[in-house]
Amino acid sequence: MNDSILDAAKQHFSSTYFEARQKFRHYVSESKVGEMAVYPSLARGPGGEELTTDVAWFGDRHATKVGVMVSATHGVEGYCGSAAQLGWLAGGGYDSLKSDEAILLVHGLNPYGFAWDRRVTQEGCDLNRNFVDFAAPLPHNEAYDLLADSLVPPELDGPVFAAAEATIEKFRTVHGELALRKARNSGQYRHPTGIFFGGFGPTIARRTLERIVSDYEIASRRWVLIIDYHTGLGPYGYGELQCEQASGISGYQRARDIFGPSVTSPDLGTSSAVVLTGTQDDYWQRILADRHVYVCLEFGTYPTDAVRAALRADHWLYAYRPAEIETDIGRGIRRRVKEIYYPARADWKEMVLYRGSQVHRQMIEGLRR
After folding, report:
1. Could you give the CA distance from residue 254 to residue 239 in angstroms, rounded to a whole number?
2. What is the pLDDT at residue 88?
3. What range does the domain containing 350 cover?
């Protein structure tokens, strides 16, 4: 094993949102060159603590070429993204910036989900389905409507659960696995306690990102590269660079020019993800069009069935057993969600830091193209 990476993993990964935030602030302060800003959240932590999204800017404030690194779009997945950002800071990544180049770090975009070990925002929304235009008709996921009561059933065992499983299996048999994945994962806007719910309006976390983008005048930059860190999909420890449909084939080609042939696309069927609605890239595409490249750096964790079961239990808890959130049952479910999206194993951490360092280097090189 590479001792230096193992040592870095011990330093950069955290066991709680609060530890991760403290480390981020410390690393930025130690850099002596980063400019910090704090965006308070209306949500509170499990102990009533203040939650924030923390931001750091490195480089020329008037740079026309900017890289953006975003952690915790999906709350509990922030353990990975935070560690990757800290790895960049600890390695002095900012020292390689040239004139007219800058990096913006967004730490803990969804601090509620990060602090509570949930994927969703304080409103119960999947932030990566929330960037739709709510002034227009919302996407309608008819297949999800058919499966809604089965995907998050009132019970997680017994005959009710067995019936829910039978309904899902029948859908899979008739329509196929890909159709089931699309129905379940692509996004839905009618079932607020369901999985992958995109919301009835912009979430506080979405508005926080919009404020950050406005405050740092990102939309006026000539060239913007975005890395959005995620976990839970794909082979264990592998960091897949996924494009979103919002940028289309041209966005995929731009990403491939910078990050190489490992970049995947749902349009081409090469991605572990299906086509999604309301992703963060929908937002970047609206404000930057072909002046940006967005990639989701997705690290696989455990088998799909285990990930699905943990996410289902989390939504079941908050939909049907809210009084048990702070009981042994609720805490057990939250621990399981954290374990599924953040494997606290040395090998997984090594893979995250190594791949993260590689992608960060490619981003810096890509700013110069």
Report:
1. 19
2. 98
3. 3-136+201-301+342-367
